[in-house]
Write a structure and sequence with these properties.
- The protein is an alpha+beta fold and 319 residues long.
- It has helices spanning 15-27, 48-53, 57-60, 65-69, 72-84, 130-151, 161-178, 192-199, 201-216, 245-257, 286-302, and strands at 31-37, 42-45, 89-96, 103-115, 118-128, 182-189, 224-229, 232-238, 261-263, 266-268, 272-279, 307-310.
- It has two domains: 10-133, PAS domain (Beta-Lactamase); 152-310, Alpha-Beta Plaits, CATH 3.30.70.
- The longest helix is centred in the middle third of the chain and has 22 residues, at 130-151.
Amino acid sequence: MDEERTPDEVPREDPERVCALLFDLVDHLDAMVAYWDRDQRCRFANQAYKAWFGRGRRELLGITLSELLGPLYALNLPHIEAAYRGERQVFERAIPRPGGNGVRHSLATYVPRIVDGRVEGIFVHVADVDMLKRLEQELKVARDEAERLATHDHLTGLPNRRLLEDRLAEAIRRAKRTGERVFALSVDVDDFKSTNDAYGHAAGDALLIEIASRIGSCVRDYDTVARFGGDEFFLLVRGVDLEGGIEALAERILEAVGRPWPIGEDVFRPTLSVGIAEYPRHGQGKEAVVLASDGAMYAAKRAGRNCFRMAVEAPAERR
């Protein structure tokens, strides 16, 4: 077995060959690599700058960071100044492509070169993170869509029961602090099954979408119209500044939904049964309020439909 060589016996590479290899290496990196001296002038840059800024190594030598970056210089200046104070900087930046053809998203690293306690310049490494940004955006879109599907009705796009219950619980918590009034309205489309059977599911779905739109036109932006499935809707109405009060709102909804709706060659006039409950008058929690509004809705059906009824008493709290 050969004895270990001493440092003097280790073959040495030709310095010029090593330098050429290093230049070749950095020029093949898919990232910008450069060194800027204490005056912010370029002393070295790889060829990646050509693709990013339209200037290669020879064109960059001697120019300043300000001359290279142009409008980006002011945005990068806090990081540049910090690096020249001796602080390593890592940050993201969108860099316009040459010719104004969009931007490239980058992750920049500024590393101070400190000699005898003094910053003599900074090493710069800027990597392309476009692919990561696109992946982040795709993941965000996927998360948002998953959340939307989990919290909204697939047919009408309205909030579903899950989201409504969250909003109702928050409205009750707010009411406990502020004394704000909270109303719950259970809404059922009268004779919807007969209509659906007579005209088909496509017509029934179109009718539900139209009813959802008509109900939504009657409430304010911060109120909630939800669909519980089938022909069941639910409204969460907050505050006391309702025009004419909650009864007047119910009348407006019945009137809006009752406008003629063409189905094939026929004209249909949808009607609703609406039950109204108020927190804390008709229940001390979200489940109690929902039960109270449901009970009032069934009272409206017993009264002949196409009308609304107020809850008369709070049901027992569900355990």
